[in-house]
Amino acid sequence: MSLDAIVDRALEIIGEAVSIDPLDFQDNETWKFLGLGDLLAAATAADLKSQIGVDVKPDDFKKYPTVGEFKAFLRKFGEGSTTSNGDGAVESSKPRLVDTEPSDPWEGVPKPKVPLSVVLQGQPNDSSTIVFLFPDGSGAGTSYGTLPPMGSNICLVGLNSPFLRQAQNFTCSIERMARLWVDEVRKLQPKGKPYVLGGWSAGGYYAFEVAKLLTANGEKVERMIMIDSPCRLEFEALPEQVVGELTRKGLMGASGQKKAPEWLVQHFTSTVISVDRYMSTPLESKHVPPHVDFIWVREGLVKSVAESGLEVDLNIKVTRFLLEPRPELKTVGWEKLLPGAKYTFNYMTGNHFQITQPPHSDDLGRLIKAVVT
């Protein structure tokens, strides 16, 4: 790609993020004026990296705060200029081109030890609606097996992580995980039929990225069901230290046991590391599903963090999201990634880790059935 093409494509990507035609950008306008705040800047930087391989950092939008300055910064890529960092050391002032992921997403990935998908209810060929549900940090799509019967016209499919029971090999990105799943989803859905995708917690990110892949290839996603999934534009990745504290206190476990199984903790930790590197970027407006349904819990994991004995930093928003009681959340950032959809909001019993545990799973099943029928 030529230097001019890199600059033009970068401006297109930024324009998509702020919903402004890049031809309307003026060199003297600042990114702040154009609506590129800190969170959207981080998402846009990730998009520049994934789409054109230019490793722009979110802070570069502050270092080069106007359109003109940023264009000049991008052009330094071709000049190979360097600057002093103030300590006498010299560092490159140009964005770095990074290697893209392999064309075959399975390259270097060991064979899964579990099926990638499990039909939990109904039959794909006999049901009017197939609901694909992506897993939380545990990686176990079978956790949705506790949902009550949905009826003869609804098929539930749970997606298992390819790295379930071998979390030490889970080092790939959220986007690549979606690529590992997308063919499995296509295999179970009759061609041309609109998709219904859902996910709990990190599963919402997987569902979102799979929707990108499907719609980019001409498929239609009719509905997305986001189950207590905190948007990455608004929430940090959960710190590994918090995972350790929750495990120590017996607050995290697929079946509510006092001590979570080791495979779950390992996979959850690998997921947290992957989420930390992930920043969602908007779905193109023409590909946004008509319906996006949010299902939130309102209970925290503990009644009082102070009395729980948990040693956590409550300055981290996602930690408060898990631990403390909440108000009735709405889109909380997802509206920037899924603009123009019709949003619905539902609230269920239990806390974040009880979502697929009885009796709360009955409530979840009731809400899913209500939005897809």
From TrEMBL:
<dbReference type="Pfam" id="PF00975">
    <property type="entry name" value="Thioesterase"/>
</dbReference>
<feature type="domain" description="Carrier">
    <location>
        <begin position="11"/>
        <end position="74"/>
    </location>
</feature>
<dbReference type="Pfam" id="PF00550">
    <property type="entry name" value="PP-binding"/>
</dbReference>
<protein>
    <recommendedName>
        <fullName>Oleoyl-[acyl-carrier-protein] hydrolase</fullName>
    </recommendedName>
</protein>
<feature type="region of interest" description="Disordered">
    <location>
        <begin position="81"/>
        <end position="110"/>
    </location>
</feature>
<dbReference type="InterPro" id="IPR001031">
    <property type="entry name" value="Thioesterase"/>
</dbReference>
<dbReference type="InterPro" id="IPR029058">
    <property type="entry name" value="AB_hydrolase_fold"/>
</dbReference>
<dbReference type="InterPro" id="IPR009081">
    <property type="entry name" value="PP-bd_ACP"/>
</dbReference>
<feature type="domain" description="Thioesterase">
    <location>
        <begin position="130"/>
        <end position="359"/>
    </location>
</feature>
<dbReference type="InterPro" id="IPR036736">
    <property type="entry name" value="ACP-like_sf"/>
</dbReference>
